[in-house]
Amino acid sequence: MADVTVRPLSELDLDGITRIDERITGRYRPEVWEERVTYYIRRDAEASQVAESGGKVVGFMLGEVRGGEFGLEEATGWLDFMGVDPDARGKGVGGRLADALLAHFRSAGVHVARTMVRTEDEQILGFVRSIGFAPAPISSLEKRL
Amino acid sequence: MAETRRDMPREYHEAVVHWQKHNFPDYPKLAQLWDRYFPRDEPFCLCAKLADDVNPEIQLGERKGQPKALSPKELPEDAAHLLLGQIRAQASTEFGSIQQHEGTLARAADPQDQAWVLRVMAEELRHGYQMVHLLTSQDWSPVTDQKPADMVEEILNMNTGSHVLAAFNLEFDSFTDNVVFAALIDRVGKYQLSMQKVSAYEPYAASMPSMLKEEAFHLAAGVVPLRRWVERAAKGDALVTMDAIQKSVTKWFLRGLEMFGDDRPGGHGGEDAVRMGLKDMNNRQAQDSYIAEVQKVLDDLNERYVRAKRPDLSRDDADALYAKLKREKGSADGIAYQDLLRLPDRRFFRRRGEGAFQMYGFDGQTFDDPEKCIADVAAHLPEAYRASVDVRHWSNTLRKVHAGEVPLKDAIKSMPRLARVGGSCPCARSVRWVMDVDGSGASGEGAQLHP
């Protein structure tokens, strides 16, 4: 794989992100990613990151600083969405994306980053643990309706 | 990004607000739509935003390493003049684009597209405010004899037809123009702001980060609707066609190229600004990057089109089909290259710089007869725009240049004479946008400066 560069997200990454999602989930969902990507660009275009190799997007990490949710008044850097092209896994792409996203959160004066991962997503859970996330003293609850 | 927010002195703040009332009457709707379309975003602020963490040293050019100027008098005289021109031109584009968008905003077919453009317009108003703040918060007397109030007056008096750059003197023909303008012309704005982020004038450099952040959304507000439109076109929607999008792209792309300034190969356009530390690329370098980026936009749209046209193909097969169409410029699997969006040659239909009033065709071919060249230009432009004074002026000037009746340098300087060329405040009791707080137009605390 050619050298990987990590840079802030732009609207020109839409197709690359849709492509990664399609490779992972098997679903082509351009409208979903158009809404999401536009949201993160609008909120803070410098926060969310993409990894590029050979002119192709091989990974993305979308997040932003929010505060006041779930009674957590402290401003929090939220890691909301991520994806790495299956062919680019195991090469440190996710780690570099996380480094850039967390550095941006720090530069915004944020002292804590949070995310939520489904228990069955062991690969993602393993990844977020590897970049320093630990179980938080918060319970995630749900009720089926 | 830490930033400080500033309002302007009352007379300037109210001048901009009053200008908005006349030129951007849809602005109040944004507050009504905000919670629906931008629910988590903090409310819009008509204010200047200055980044707190700007590099204090000049980052390039012959004064690299020296402290950035905090006021115009700290700059060398030639740099201060160039800077003032940059700020005035930037201000003209911000206010000018609002006047253009407003004309066709109501024609949007999709409420989200409309709300996005409305926000784009409001943020352009804030950018104009930011430029006026730069002109009125420092002493420019070492650079110009013009008083701040008169500089602001001159900018607010500009109208579609009298702005500094040609791209802001064209009327929008439909809401397609609103969206294509955001995707293409705001992209030039992104380049200008990015280049000026290093400016040797600290208040200008500090103005760029917040503007760039907002500009990133403007590009999405152009590209995302276009992505959806090309899909509809591929599915046979008679109301959205690739031809209409292509013609609007052609209309704006060439004017966008001219916003970079003198771009002649081997020329020195923009190098003075780089030498003075006011921006970090010359005109040609920036324009080359811009062209490559617009090509990426079109590739993205074309790939979406091919995917929608042939949903039976896998992602890889659809990509291979687009690559083949682009390479061979023919037809395959029911799609013709001519159905796709294409960039015109950079010398096509130019008024300034490389190819100005020369007989280049859309694909870079040359003509020896002005009428053939004009026919090629006309065939690639939107029908409504073809009938405009702008295209007529270009065509007549091309004929005169090639008949030897007008020297090329005079042709390049000429602009179409539009019927509407100025815009002092149209209120019956006021002839100026900027009112003297202590003058006869108002008296007492809290009095309205405008009727």
Structural features, described:
- The complex is a heterodimer of chains A (145) and B (451).
- By secondary structure, chain A is α+β, with helices and mostly antiparallel strands.
- Chain A has one domain (4-130): Aminopeptidase, CATH 3.40.630.30.
- Chain A is built from 4 helices and 5 strands, in the order βααβββαβα.
- In chain A, strands 1-2-3-4-5 form a 5-stranded mixed sheet, with helices on both faces.
- In chain A, strand 2 (49-53) and strand 3 form a beta hairpin.
- In chain A, helix 1 (14-25) packs across helix 2 (30-44).
- With 451 residues, chain B is mainly alpha-helical.
- In chain B, the strands form 2 sheets. In chain B, strands 1-2 form a two-stranded antiparallel ribbon. A two-stranded antiparallel sheet of chain B has the order 3-4.
- In chain B, helix 2 crosses helix 4, helix 3 (77-104) packs antiparallel against helix 4 and helix 6 (175-196) packs antiparallel against helix 10 (283-309).
- The longest helix of chain B is centred in the middle third of the chain and has 33 residues, at 202-234.
- The two termini of chain B are 39 Å apart.
Notable traits:
heterodimer; A: 145 residues; alpha+beta; Aminopeptidase; 5-stranded mixed beta sheet; 4 helices; 5 strands; 22% strand; globular; B: 451 residues; mainly alpha; two-stranded antiparallel sheet; 4 strands; 53% helix
